[in-house]
Structure formats: structure tokens, C-alpha cells
Automatic annotation (TrEMBL):
NCBIfam families: PRK09194.1, proS_fam_II. The gene is proS1. It comes from the Bacteria. Keywords: Aminoacyl-tRNA synthetase, ATP-binding, Cytoplasm, Ligase, Nucleotide-binding, Protein biosynthesis. InterPro entries: aa-tRNA-synt_IIb, aa-tRNA-synth_II, aa-tRNA-synth_II/BPL/LPL, Anticodon-bd, Anticodon-bd_dom_sf, Pro-tRNA-ligase_IIa, Pro-tRNA-synth_IIa_bac-type, Pro-tRNA-Synthase_IIa_type1. Consists of three domains: the N-terminal catalytic domain, the editing domain and the C-terminal anticodon-binding domain. It catalyses: tRNA(Pro) + L-proline + ATP = L-prolyl-tRNA(Pro) + AMP + diphosphate. Catalyzes the attachment of proline to tRNA(Pro) in a two-step reaction: proline is first activated by ATP to form Pro-AMP and then transferred to the acceptor end of tRNA(Pro). As ProRS can inadvertently accommodate and process non-cognate amino acids such as alanine and cysteine, to avoid such errors it has two additional distinct editing activities against alanine. One activity is designated as 'pretransfer' editing and involves the tRNA(Pro)-independent hydrolysis of activated Ala-AMP. This is Proline--tRNA ligase. Signal peptide: none annotated. Belongs to the class-II aminoacyl-tRNA synthetase family. ProS type 1 subfamily. It comes from Paenibacillus segetis. Its main location: cytoplasm. Homodimer.
């Protein structure tokens, strides 16, 4: 490709609304252009990278035995109502009506569509197992699109679905796809971790893992053990036994009577700890939630945060949110800021760490009063005891005795689910087994955010000058830059090398623009093509400047040596 004909412009400054480095660089380097919030055009350079991601994903899907198809983006909402997800997705589901007033949705995912398709195409165990996948545009009406391609309203996704006759078959399909994902993200050159995760609105009956790219801009917190291979999303993470220093605890030589005491205008854990000169581990924090249409309370230790996902899963609720002050004001004996876990008129979910306390301080359910000497076994109804909190960094690992939990930020790139019969049962997707009995299909679901990968790679592969693409994903392998297109010797050598490389299948961008060298080099740094060949004053001796963009290594070599190095580097990368 000759750069003079490339549909491409670079920007010298980052747009003011671009927060993430990847968003800034993709705009500045001319990979994408914004049409509306969360909606982007992929410019020719960006589309070339996107196609390479697709090629890598397709190769591994084929290797894993999956077959590609393409399903409609527009889906009848009757399917979503039949599966029970129509209300769950809420405003994120983009709905529209056709001229006959029939309601459709722009697909954010395709579990309902694929289940309906397979239901009508397969009715015998003889045609199972099967795994089907597609690469297609998805739509979600995000409340706050941000970080460019990391959280958009229109995005490209690979979604695959497996169908098996039993759970043993699903287990094989799941781990087969799990290994394919490991190969994909390794080939893409991404520093990633596979972590245990929550199923979210896609749900399921079995295990689920997320594949997370490690990056400071990531919106997810990853919990990793320092010794073993335990890794989980914060929503799912657990800890081992919690070590508490005796100096941090209230003396509990004996269990004393519950005592109410005056705490005027002290409503927060921080205020209470400061006023009483005590550690938050001695305080019981109680928060009231609305779970679907019911009120519940959750009690955790003062130094812990409530994990709403764990609470939601324990209750089997569709929706959960902190109860508003108006709802609380209608309940006798409930005062915001002074809520305790005793004698509440609704269920109390008690975290393990609270249930194991000997004595604690909590709200008295009375304005300006707290209680001390609260003994959970004596004073709280321990009907619902479980893990309802976020782990803290530094706690012990739940899988090994030596490790400690450490936190990282991550970008979710892929998610694999054991769906079981969640969708096949709702949509009556059945098959006839070898004994002639009708059984429900067992499903798995496997997604990769194709367009999101561009952002994740750039977050991990950039410097202060621009992008530093891995050679497997770069829009071109080589950036060929003659210093002056008016110099016949330079252009003659540039044209010769250009055609030699093209004949070997090397992707080359020849900068034949009539621009100053400084402009060419700045654009080249921004775009981030991994190999740069500069042809200048030594063109007559057929010497060129060979540079590896990522390492900024510059060396004067003969053109034949440069040619050989390029062939070797590209060959080794594939």
C-alpha cells in the first residue's frame, strides 16, 4: 500500500473526551473515528488490525471443531420473553418496532436465537455434540459509553455455543474452548489471566471463567494468589481464614450484656471508629437492600464491603439495590445511619466474619444510638450465614496455605459459560437419546470481544510516541520511508525493496508522501508498525536504516540484510 493513497489522517492532539490511552492513540493514529457516543467507524488501518484478530480467532475456532455461521442482528423479542431475559436486560436492550408494530431487539448476544435454530434443526443424539460460532456486530445501550472501544454501544463479538447430550459432554466442550481461548490470547500477545467469575445476565448452571487483560484502565478487579494459580474476579473471589491481630480486637474475656449508648450524629463506620477509638473490625455494618420486591439486610464487618453479586446469587434475585431513604422511613424501628442486625422485620444475611465475632458494636435501630457487646450467636438470628463480602487485599488464599491475595485491574476480553439447560429448557430445545427418550440439550456459551481486543492490546503495547503493535496484529509488517521522494536513488531503492517484499507476502506501507521527514517519523511512531526501514543519504550504497519500533533499535545495514531480517521476523511471528 502506498501511503499517498491511504484513506488516513493523524491527529497531533488527543480529543479532550478521550480518557484511556488506547482511545487517545486510536483516534490520533487514525484507526477509528467516532460517529456518536459509543459508536465508531473503523478506518482502513483499524479494519486491517480487526481482520487479523478475526483471522486468529477463526483459526482457533476451526481447530477446536467449531463451525461458523451468521445469525441475524435483529431478533424478535418474543424469544427474549420466552427465555425470561426481556426484563432482565432492561434499558440496555435496544428495542424497535417494524411497520406491522412487531417488536424486535438489536442483539446484544444470541443465546435465544441459536437455541431456537438448533431446536428446529437437530432432534437426535446422532448429530451431537456440535459447536457453532459467529463473528458479528452486537448492540447494547450502555448508560455511559467510555474508554473508546472498551465500553461501546455497538461492538464486534465472537460468540460460540456448544450443544451436548449430557454434562460430561459439556465439560469436554467447555475445557476444549477454554484451551482455545488460552491459545488465542497468547497468539495475540496479550498479558492475561483466566479467572473464576460470576455468570451475570447470561447465567448458567455450571462454572464460568473470564479472560482478563491486565491493564490499569480496566474496570474489573482481579484477585490473584501470590503462590498458587487461584484467580477470580472480585465479584466471585473468596478468601481463606482471616488473620486478625489481637491488638486490633476488643477484649472479650467474657460475654457482657448488650448495652445501648448515645452516639449523636455518628452515622458512618469512620465516624464511629474515630469517636470510640476502635478498629472497624469491631463494628458490624448493616445495610438494607431491596431484592426484587422484598427488603433484606446484610451484615458485614466494618472493614469489609458488601458484595451485591454474592447477595443476589444467594437470594436468587433478578435485581438488587440499596433501599432508598423513603422506603426505610416507612418501617418502624429503622433509622438510616443507625441500623443494626437485631430484631429486624425482614431476613438478615450475616457474613461468616460477623457470625464468628464474640463481641461487636452496631446500630441500635434508634436515632443517635448504637449498641456494644453484641454477640451474634445470642443477639442475631443466624438463619442466613454465608460469604456476602468482597475480599480484601492481603488476605489468605482459599486454595493454598501459603499464598496471599493481591489485586490487579483487568479488561474482560472473553467469557466462557456452562449454561446447562437454562435456555434449552425455557425454549423447549430437546433431542431423542439412544434409548428413545426425549431429553433437554445441554449448552455452553463462549464469547470474545473482538473490537475490545484492539484497545486491550494498545493499553499493553504503547509508549509516549504511539502504538507498538505486535507483528501478528500490526496493520502492516513494514513501514518503508524514503526521506525524500524527489531523490531518484532513494525512490529507486524504495521501489525495489517494496516489490521484493510484496512478492514474499510481506505487508508493506510505503510512505511516498511529499512530507518533511519529521512528519513521516511522527506518523510512523503513532501508527506503530513494528519494522521501519528508512532510506536516506546512503541509498546509493544500498544501505538503509533498520529499526524495530518497540525497542527503538536503529542500525545501518545493507538492503539485502534488511530484507533477510524482515522475512525471518515475519516468518517467526506466524
Amino acid at each position: 500500500m502506498r501511503q499517498s493513497t491511504l484513506f488516513h489522517n493523524t491527529l497531533r492532539e488527543s480529543p479532550s473526551d478521550a480518557e484511556a490511552v488506547s482511545h487517545q492513540l486510536m483516534l490520533r493514529a487514525g484507526f477509528i473515528r467516532q460517529l456518536a457516543a459509543g459508536i465508531y467507524t473503523y478506518m482502513p488501518l483499524g479494519r486491517r488490525v480487526l481482520r487479523k484478530v478475526e483471522q486468529i480467532v477463526r483459526a482457533e475456532m476451526e481447530r477446536a471443531g467449531a463451525q461458523e455461521l451468521l445469525m441475524p442482528a435483529m431478533q424478535p423479542t418474543e424469544l427474549w420473553k420466552e427465555s425470561g431475559r426481556y426484563a432482565q436486560y432492561g434499558p440496555e436492550l435496544i428495542r424497535l418496532r417494524d411497520r406491522h408494530d412487531r417488536e424486535f431487539a438489536l442483539g446484544p448476544t444470541h443465546e435465544e436465537v441459536i437455541t431456537s435454530l438448533v431446536k428446529n434443526e437437530i432432534n437426535s443424539y446422532r448429530r451431537l455434540p456440535v459447536t457453532l460460532y459467529q463473528i458479528q456486530t452486537k448492540f447494547r445501550d450502555e448508560r455511559r459509553p467510555r474508554f473508546g472501544l472498551l465500553r461501546g454501544r455497538e461492538f464486534l463479538m465472537k460468540d460460540a455455543y456448544s450443544f451436548d447430550i449430557d454434562w460430561e459432554g459439556l465439560d469436554k466442550s467447555y475445557w476444549n474452548m477454554f484451551e482455545a481461548y488460552n491459545r488465542i490470547f497468547t497468539t495475540l500477545g496479550i498479558n492475561f489471566r483466566a479467572v473464576e467469575a460470576d455468570g451475570g445476565t447470561i447465567g448458567g448452571e455450571g462454572g464460568t471463567h473470564e479472560f482478563m487483560a491486565l491493564a490499569d484502565v480496566g474496570e474489573d478487579t482481579i484477585v490473584v494468589c501470590t503462590c498458587c494459580d487461584y484467580a477470580a474476579n472480585l465479584e466471585k473471589a473468596e478468601s481463606g481464614a482471616i488473620d486478625v491481630e489481637e491488638d486490633d480486637m476488643i477484649s472479650t474475656d467474657e460475654i457482657r450484656d448488650l448495652e445501648k449508648f448515645y452516639t449523636p450524629d455518628i452515622r458512618s463506620i469512620e465516624q464511629l471508629g474515630e469517636a470510640l477509638q476502635i478498629n472497624p473490625i469491631d463494628i458490624i455494618k448493616t445495610v438494607v437492600f431491596k431484592a426484587d420486591d422484598n427488603l433484606i439486610a446484610v451484615a458485614v464487618r466494618g472493614d469489609h464491603e458488601i458484595n451485591e453479586i454474592k447477595v443476589k446469587n444467594y437470594l436468587g434475585a433478578q435485581d438488587i439495590s440499596i433501599a432508598d431513604s423513603e422506603s426505610l422511613a416507612k418501617i418502624p424501628g429503622i433509622v438510616a445511619g443507625f441500623i443494626g442486625p437485631m430484631d429486624l422485620p425482614f431476613p438478615v444475611l450475616v457474613d461468616h466474619t460477623v457470625a464468628n465475632m464474640t463481641s461487636g458494636i452496631a446500630g441500635a435501630n434508634e436515632l443517635n444510638y448504637h449498641v456494644r457487646n453484641l454477640n451474634p450467636i445470642r443477639d442475631i438470628e443466624l438463619t442466613h450465614v454465608g460469604d456476602f463480602r468482597n475480599v480484601n487485599e492481603g488476605e489468605s488464599c482459599p486454595r493454598c496455605t501459603e499464598g496471599r491475595l493481591t489485586f490487579y485491574r483487568g479488561i474482560e476480553l472473553g467469557h466462557v459459560f456452562k449454561l446447562g439447560t437454562k435456555y434449552s429448557e425455557q425454549l423447549s430445545a430437546n433431542f431423542i437419546d439412544p434409548s428413545g427418550k426425549e431429553k433437554t440439550l445441554i449448552m455452553g456459551c463462549y464469547g470474545i470481544g473482538i473490537s475490545r481486543i484492539l484497545s486491550a492490546v494498545i493499553e499493553q503495547h504503547h509508549d509516549d510516541k504511539g502504538v507498538t503493535w505486535p507483528i501478528t496484529l500490526a496493520p502492516f509488517h513494514v513501514h518503508l520511508i524514503p526521506i525524500s521522494i524527489k531523490d531518484d536513488k532513494q525512490m529507486e531503492l524504495a521501489q525495489k525493496l517494496y516489490h521484493l517484499l510484496l512478492e514474499q507476502g510481506i505487508e508493506v506501507l510505503l510512505d511516498d508522501r511529499d512530507e518533511r521527514p519529521g512528519v513521516k517519523f511522527k506518523d510512523s511512531d503513532l501508527i506503530g508498525i513494528p519494522i521501519r526501514i528508512v532510506i536516506g543519504k546512503d541509498a546509493e550504497q544500498e544501505h538503509v536504516e533498520f529499526t524495530l519500533r518497540k525497542h527503538n533499535m536503529k542500525e545501518s545495514v545493507h538492503v539485502q540484510e534488511a530484507f533477510a531480517r524482515i522475512i525471518d521476523l515475519v516468518k517467526r511471528s506466524h
